[in-house]
């Protein structure tokens, strides 16, 4: 038998329990005496307002009402209707009904009319974006007038933030979803008009602007993406400044350098250079390497007829080795690997020209070191450039799931090169801190990557802030952070780690025990606490070196150092000690007097019970001595040491020992179970006979 029409089955989940399919009466007409129950449905009462219904009758009624309300002549009523429409449009059931009522056309007409502004326009565009996100209507259906209107909102210098954000989102979707709309949008929006939006402080606007630029470059034909402009920052020849989309607005060199900031984030330029191999036969490219040599060693290019060819080759090879290239004979070969290709050479030349002192210092400093400790500048620059491209995802398509935003790249017209210059100096500094050799190259690069990633996590607003952040992330600090994180990781709760802790604990406890006994052998001066010893104000007690006898006796005054055994008249064999008593259970604390009322003294009191009913009573000078003596005496009796200091020492020493033992296992996955024991060999003929 089919279920009643008013019953809808809804899957309901509860945390920690299995989901259940429950039947819900979606109308409850008998309860509220509702007429035309087919016009009602259940709706989730949260921010989504999604419908729980198997029919679309109620969503149709809502769509019809909103379709009428947004055409109201009252501005207040119209605003409320648009707010409701923007909220309801997120539900695909409602969106389908509203679109069937030609709601999209109504919204575009309202935008094209230009009569709405402020919140009215903002909610109109919000509703439009929400409806289009469902993919029900094709983007190709919109008129040029609508595109021009949306573009005008972006081109205005002063525009409501919400309107600007929605307009940028609409333009991005138009470009990505229709090649025809790309051409129309490209005619209305130029790169120069988008630049001001990147110079503001609103990160959402900056992000949406970058998204539009990414979309324009992705959809642009190849010939339009390969427009090259001469770079006035270089003195000898054009390295490669910027790719732009041709537009009706002339692009001059000044604007090109402004656009470089966009391209650092767009990464089309960087990707092109990164994937360009160096041609070892290209003289213009080889001149760049000669320029690096000239700046580093202050040498001029020798004429071809100066000296023998072999002599000049030997001189070049020596200098290229000092520059840290892998191939000393022909360093151009080092740049044939892609990535990073020519991008690494661009970065090196920029560093040499714009940070000449730092460049010369790094090259000369490493060329004068011992070979095993020199940091190869050439190899480091190539690998660092490759690493930076990986960190910033150069060459990857824009992802809607990525929310990384780095404001510092908007603060310099050559931001990526400056970023490299900071990081190459960091690499050289870290190399020295690690006292690395050529075999440690990969380890150094791993540490540098971690330093850069941790500094970027703070989202510095400028390159100076990024540099300052790196100064606080030295190699020593990285080690501390790693150790701290490792102790807090789940790995430290894994079975192998717990077993290792259990194995180490007895060793640590034995170390603490020996320290306590050694301290008892040194002895301590105590104040007198009974009439039994009236000759002096102090008495001294110490353990014999063989740990078999306690020596004690009265003193005239507090000693300046250790008191010899032979000057202490009384002895107590350790074998005669029956127990150690502490606190209020001590005999001298049970006696009437001021000591009984003093809580501080009570916490420092302990007694040694020997023979049948004899006691040796103590009041420690401080808490530390109290813990040392009670621990030491318990250790002599073979009992557990339970003082606060023992627990503290155990935690400290155990933590240090665990860190030391796991230091060599960094970045190694520790298995949960031990490896299987191999089978016994068929014979033991391989064993060496010592006889």
From TrEMBL:
Domain ELMO: 284-456
Pfam short name (any one): PH_12
Biological processes, Gene Ontology terms: actin filament organization; apoptotic process; cell motility; phagocytosis
InterPro entries: ARM-like (IPR011989), ARM-type_fold (IPR016024), ELMO_ARM (IPR024574), ELMO_dom (IPR006816), ELMO_domain-containing (IPR050868), PH-like_dom_sf (IPR011993), PH_domain (IPR001849)
CDD domains (alphabetical): PH_ELMO1_CED-12
GO cellular component, one term: guanyl-nucleotide exchange factor complex
Keyword presence, Chloroplast: no
Keyword ATP-binding attached: no
UniProt GO MF annotations: SH3 domain binding
Keywords: Apoptosis, Phagocytosis, SH3-binding
PANTHER family in alphabetical order: ENGULFMENT AND CELL MOTILITY, ENGULFMENT AND CELL MOTILITY PROTEIN 1
Function, as annotated: Involved in cytoskeletal rearrangements required for phagocytosis of apoptotic cells and cell motility. Acts in association with DOCK1 and CRK. Was initially proposed to be required in complex with DOCK1 to activate Rac Rho small GTPases. May enhance the guanine nucleotide exchange factor (GEF) activity of DOCK1.
Protein name as annotated: Engulfment and cell motility 1
Species of the source: Oreochromis niloticus (Nile tilapia)
């Amino acid at each position: 038998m089919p279920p009643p029409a008013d019953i809808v089955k809804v899957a309901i989940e509860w945390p920690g329990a299995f989901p259940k399919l429950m039947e819900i009466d979606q109308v409850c007409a008998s309860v509220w005496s509702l007429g035309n129950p087919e016009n009602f449905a259940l709706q989730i009462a949260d921010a989504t307002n999604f419908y729980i219904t198997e029919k679309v009758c109620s969503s149709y009624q809502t769509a019809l009402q909103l379709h009428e309300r947004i055409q109201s002549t009252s501005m207040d009523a119209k605003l409320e209707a648009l707010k409701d429409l923007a909220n309801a449009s997120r539900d695909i059931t409602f969106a389908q009904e509203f679109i069937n009522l030609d709601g999209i056309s109504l919204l575009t007409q309202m935008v094209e009319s230009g009569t709405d502004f402020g919140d009215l326009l903002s909610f109109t565009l919000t509703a439009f974006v929400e409806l289009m996100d469902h993919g029900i209507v094709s983007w190709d259906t919109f008129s040029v007038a609508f595109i021009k209107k949306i573009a005008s909102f972006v081109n205005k210098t002063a525009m409501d933030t919400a309107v600007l954000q929605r307009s940028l989102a609409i333009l991005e979707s138009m470009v990505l979803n229709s090649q025809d709309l790309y051409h129309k949008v490209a005619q209305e929006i130029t790169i120069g008009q988008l630049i001001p939006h990147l110079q503001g402080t609103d990160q959402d606007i900056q992000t949406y602007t970058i998204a539009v630029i990414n979309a324009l470059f992705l959809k642009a034909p190849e010939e339009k993406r390969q427009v090259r402009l001469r770079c006035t920052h270089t003195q000898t020849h054009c390295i490669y400044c910027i790719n732009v989309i041709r537009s009706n607005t002339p692009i001059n060199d000044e604007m090109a350098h402004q656009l470089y900031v966009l391209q650092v984030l767009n990464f089309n330029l960087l990707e092109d250079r990164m994937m360009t191999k160096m041609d070892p036969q290209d003289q213009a490219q080889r001149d760049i390497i000669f320029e690096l040599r000239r700046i580093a060693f202050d040498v001029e290019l020798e004429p071809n007829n100066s000296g023998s060819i072999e002599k000049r080759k030997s001189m070049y090879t020596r200098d290229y080795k000092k520059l840290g290239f892998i191939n000393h004979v022909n360093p151009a070969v080092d740049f044939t690997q892609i990535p990073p290709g020519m991008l690494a050479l661009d970065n090196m030349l920029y560093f040499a020209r714009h940070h000449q002192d730092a460049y010369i210092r790094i090259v000369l400093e490493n060329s004068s070191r011992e070979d095993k400790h020199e940091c190869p500048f050439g190899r480091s620059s190539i690998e660092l450039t490759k690493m930076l491209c990986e960190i910033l995802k150069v060459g990857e398509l824009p992802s809607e799931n990525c929310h990384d935003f780095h404001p510092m790249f908007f603060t310099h017209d050559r931001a990526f090169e400056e970023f490299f210059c900071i990081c190459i100096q960091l690499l050289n500094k870290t190399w020295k801190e690690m006292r690395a050799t050529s075999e440690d190259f990969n380890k150094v690069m791993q540490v540098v990557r971690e330093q850069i990633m941790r500094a970027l996590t703070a989202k510095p607003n400028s390159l100076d802030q990024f540099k300052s952040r790196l100064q606080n992330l030295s190699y020593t600090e990285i080690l501390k952070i790693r150790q701290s994180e490792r102790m807090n990781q789940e790995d430290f709760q894994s079975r192998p780690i717990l077993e290792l802790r259990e194995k180490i604990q007895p060793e640590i406890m034995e170390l603490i025990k020996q320290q306590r006994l050694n301290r008892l052998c040194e002895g301590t001066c105590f104040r007198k606490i009974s009439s039994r010893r009236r000759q002096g104000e102090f008495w001294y007690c110490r353990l014999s070196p063989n740990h078999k006898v306690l020596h004690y006796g009265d003193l005239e005054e507090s000693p300046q150092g250790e008191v010899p055994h032979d000057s202490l008249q009384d002895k107590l064999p350790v074998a005669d000690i029956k127990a150690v008593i502490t606190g209020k259970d001590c005999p001298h604390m049970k006696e009437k007097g001021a000591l009984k009322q003093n809580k501080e003294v009570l916490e420092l009191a302990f007694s040694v019970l020997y023979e049948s009913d004899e006691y040796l009573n103590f009041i420690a000078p401080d808490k530390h001595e109290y813990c040392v003596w009670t621990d030491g005496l318990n250790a002599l009796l073979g009992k557990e040491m339970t003082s606060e200091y023992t627990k503290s020492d155990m935690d400290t020493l155990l933590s240090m020992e665990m860190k030391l033992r796991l230091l060599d296992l960094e970045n190694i996955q520790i298995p949960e179970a031990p490896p299987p024991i191999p089978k016994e060999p068929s014979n033991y003929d391989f064993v060496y006979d010592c006889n």
